[in-house]
Amino acid sequence: MAGLAAARARGCKGDRKFALAKAQARLAQASVAQRDTSVSDLCKELGIKRVTLYRYVGPKGELRNYGRRVLGLA
């Protein structure tokens, strides 16, 4: 607990870094919304797993909680 208190005193929030940057999240959203996009190819391009992609973007291209948080909408 002392380590967490010291980190907070330094201004660290302790949150985990997002797997996708803002631009990558927007690209993922736009790509998944297009029906002809291969999810496997998109994941390889972004360097993430399919599960991670679907945490950010739903199967129809809608933003999910992680996607809204990384874009600052939540």
Describe it.
InterPro entries: Homeodomain-like_sf (IPR009057). The protein has 5 helices and no strands. By secondary structure, the chain is mainly alpha-helical. It has helices spanning 2-9, 22-33, 39-46, 50-56, 65-70. It is elongated, with a radius of gyration of 15 Å. It has one domain (18-70).
The overall average pLDDT, rounded, is: 91
User: How much of the residues is beta strand, in percent?
Assistant: under 5%
Structural class given helices, strands, pairing? mainly alpha
Q: Would you identify the regions where 5 or more consecutive residues have pLDDT less than 50? A: none
- What string gives the helices and strands in order? HHHHH
Number of helices: 5
Total discrete domains: 1
Radius of gyration: 15 Å
Number of strands: 0
The helix content is 55-70%
Looking at how many chains there are and whether they match, the oligomeric state comes to single chain
Envelope shape: elongated
Summarize the main sheet: none
What's the end-to-end separation, in Å?
28 Å
